[in-house]
Amino acid sequence: MKLQSFSVENYKIFKENFTLNINESSIVILTGRNNTGKSTLLEAINWFFKKETKSNTIPIDCYTDEGKEIIFRGKFGFGEESFTFTKKYSNGSTPKFFDDQGIEIKASHQLRANLDVILSNDPFYITPAMSIDDLNSQVQNIYSEATKNKIQEIENATFEDEDVSEEHKLKKEYEELKLSIPKFVTSLKKTLDESLRLVSGQVSVALQRLFSNDSISLKISGGESGGISSSEIVKSMKSNLFINQDERSDMHLSNQGTGLQRMTLIYLIQNMIDNNLIGNRDDKMLLIDEPEAFLHPEAVRALSDSLYQIGREMPLIISTHSPILINLEERHTSIQIFRVGQSDAIELYKSDTEKFDDDDFKNLKILNYVDSYVNEFFFADNILIVEGDTEYIAFNQLVKMNKDNLHIIRAKGKSTVATLMKILNQFQTKYTVLHDSDNNPDFSISTLRAQLTNCKSIFANSINEDVNIYSSVHTFEVALGLGSISGSNKTRKIYEIMNDDSVDTEISLAKEKIKSVYNVILCNNEERTLPDGFHKIETIEDYERLFNPMIEAMVEQA
């Protein structure tokens, strides 16, 4: 059983029907601004699985419209089949489940068994503000899942008679226990029935006298037992978690800090999966609301690795504001990244390793080491890729000054620009690229041809009209009129330009050029004119016009 899509309606922020299509990805990452419904969506999924009573259900203030029902609808895959179940809440009554035809699913319904399988696998749900009861409930949920898996493993195991392993011994004890329970109940019933026979006779006499009817008699029948079920064993086992730290020993997890509580649960799940105690199947989910909350940055990075490891074995849905948790260099786990809004969830990215080669993965690793916030583009509306530090510093200064909604990614090289474009092409949004052409007249013919090839590889990834590419000739600094500047002096020079209000002609002209390029890129407005030294690239021929005259002149001279 696997959740394929989930809809919510009339619950908190979701007034209208909102649907999240999960497809086949193991990890789903929900992004979006505050108060768009990320946490509410996880909460709604958890409510779908809850066993509720009239007195313990969704509060009235969670109904967007008190006159309407709250509706949660989940589509679940069972092998090659899929079934849709709808849970409806009416104010003041216990919720009910319905099939996709709107028929209530009662005990006799043909899909009741499927629904029971789903509800028996309620998700692990971890939030930033878990109460002590919530914490204890999740601890018990994790332990119960491990117990259930172990019992199933014991039941399915086969051994030779001469096997003396502990596992074989445990299986024998389990089989003996299943047989001994009915024997015990039978003996107990026999003893108890003898005692109750006297009581039933006395009650019969009293009833005959009261109703003047000698034919009335009472017969007390004791219970029967066919054995003990695995679910009964699971219910009987309780678990607690204690933390030993410094001079304090055996302190209950509920008395620890919030960050330690949440990380303990997450690492507990991860390591139980690693040891084949839970997971390795599709019928149990992990829901985590803002896993980065209350953690230091280094802990968030470590957490990212753990989440991806969990996602290989168990469906995982998280909501986050942290770009650090998104790891695009991960090969083994498919991920879906959504931006959640009040009416829909836009799929920003779905990983597909076939689209990335070994060089792409190497570029992503390097990029993550250089800039841990590169993945902020999953949280931004407007995106600009630049090649180097100089333009990154200059444009970021203008973003801060103008308070523009623009996220700038520093690619650190043309090959990484192409890799980032492959990723961003899977977005449903626009983005812009600014890179150096590197058509330096001092380069050799072979170097110029190599740079032309690099430029063309960038253009090859501009697969739709929402991508705009601009190129500086031959570097950003030269295009600004500053000439060639050594690497160690570039950042100092650009800082001076952006923060110096002197009338120095070179500095003021460079600053005006930077502002002009920035405004063209930000607006992508055809009415604005690029300053000298910058070109908009619309065809491969635009690159060839920058390189071929130099190359041809060098060939003639040779």
Structure description:
This protein has helices spanning 38-49, 112-119, 132-156, 166-211, 230-236, 258-274, 297-311, 358-370, 389-402, 414-424, 445-460, 476-479, 487-499, 505-523, 540-557, and strands spanning 2-9, 18-21, 27-31, 70-78, 81-89, 96-98, 124-126, 242-245, 248-252, 286-289, 316-319, 335-340, 345-350, 383-386, 407-410, 431-436, 467-472, 534-537. The chain is an alpha/beta fold and 558 residues long. The protein has a 6-stranded mixed beta sheet with strand order 7-10-11-3-12-13, with helices on both faces. Strands 2-1-4-5-6 form a 5-stranded antiparallel beta sheet, covered by helices on one side. The termini are far apart. Helix 9 runs parallel beside helix 13 (487-499), helix 10 (414-424) runs parallel beside helix 11 (445-460) and helix 11 packs antiparallel against helix 15. Residues 24-344 form the AAA+ ATPase domain.
Radius of gyration: 33 Å
Structural class of the secondary structure composition?
A: alpha/beta
What's the story with the biggest beta sheet?
Answer: 6 strands, mixed
Measured as a percent range, the helix fraction is 40-55%
